[in-house]
Amino acid sequence: MSRHAPRRRAEPRRRRRGRDTAPVPASAPAPAPAPAPEVASPAAPALSRLERFARSRWAFVLWLLVVAVGAAGLLACTFEVGPGWLCCAGAVTVATAYSWALAIRTGGRPIVVGLLALVLGLAAVISDEDALRTGAAVLTCVVAAVLGVMATVPSVRFLGAVREVVVAVVLAAIGALATVGFEPVVSVVRFEYVTLALAFVGVFALVYRLGAGLHGLGRRGVLIVLIGSVLLAVTLLYAELLRRYGTPGLVGNLLDVVVWSRSNLGAFPRPIETILGVPALAWGVHMRARRRQGWWVCAFGVAATTPVANALVNPAVSLSESALAVTYGAVVGLLIGLVVIRLDLAFTAPRGKRGRRAEEAGAVRPEPSRTRPLL
What we know:
mainly alpha
């Protein structure tokens, strides 16, 4: 073979292998099975429409009207204006409306809960049994106290926290009228302890879900819960020991302070509301705008709403004195809450005016509005 003869260049092994191998046809995908036809029950659309209406704005407007009518009837009965059945009718109306609202706020079934509350209230009123009336009063007081805390929304600033405390106190005050409207036959001290215990059980059961359980507390949350529990225990234990085993001199000195306050100011604030309940509620709604642990602080707000809801059970205290006592307790408690919030921001927030503004701008933790379900 001559040197100048054309040579044949060898093909690459990859290309030659590609020529020798025949292409494998891709398998076609198997056809998806046709979905089975769904058979809708005829009651489902009606139930969904009722649920949508229960969570709509018109339902909230209707709820406000119902509560206003019930509260007006209770006030008329309190001032002995109008027929005597206004007390029972107003109590059943407010208890049903509050149960409805609490079910909506906590993600429950408002229609079922509202109908159940209506049936229980009517049964207690129609039967005229002391046990049923007292049980209805206890449940109404507890529902009003828990709803007062659950109806609050987060607040970035202290003025917003004041607004939320006012909302909670007003709801609990209307619940107090409904509680006494059932005309319970009770021991005042026992009624106060039972309603406070049930309110704490209910609110902690809800906050356990809202605050991501115990593991969502963190070290700071655990410390807050411990401090609140100690304050609650010390307040109740001191009051009970003083009532049973207090020396005449000490009891006399404390009674002198209470008598002076009632004579000159018109009332004496409830200690558990002033020291624990209102400061915890104000600090809790302020913390909820930044951290979810604020719900655990708000749980101690029932120490403020429960004394308000059972304030009228004691027949020795007039309506005006109860209103003044609640007002004084809220004002002093808000001052204590302001100090606690300032101390909290001093340890956790950046310093300086610009730093505080940046901290407030970053406090945007989302949470449903006041009329929307939390769960």
